[in-house]
Amino acid sequence: MDLTTLMISGRSLMGILSGNPQNEPMHYGEVFGIWSYLSTTKGLLVGYQTFINHTGDKDLKNFLEDLT
Question: Who's near 15: CB < 8 A, 6+ residues apart?
Fold first, then answer.
């Protein structure tokens, strides 16, 4: 899920609650949630890439490459 999709989902939720999805900004909690999700996802990706670069087992390397 990319940032644009997350922002549209957040705006839709805010719009559902207020009645107008186009004119409502995202709540700071929603922005923080998106930021947390993206930073965690990027951190996990970097961790998996580090594991791939340091593993000697071919099966494990293939498994980790499938995760990314």
Answer: 21, 22, 23, 24
CA dist 6 and 59 (Å) reads: 34
pTM over 0.70: no
The answer to whether the beta carbons of residues 52 and 64 sit under 8 Å apart is: yes
Q: Do residues 34 and 3 lie in contact, with contact meaning Cβ atoms separated by under 8 Å?
A: yes
Cα separation of 56 and 65, whole Å? 13
Angle made by CA atoms 8, 48, 3, in degrees to the nearest 5? 10
Tokens of residue 48, six digits:
């998996």
Read off the DSSP letter of residue 40.
H
The pLDDT > 90 percentage for the chain reads: 25
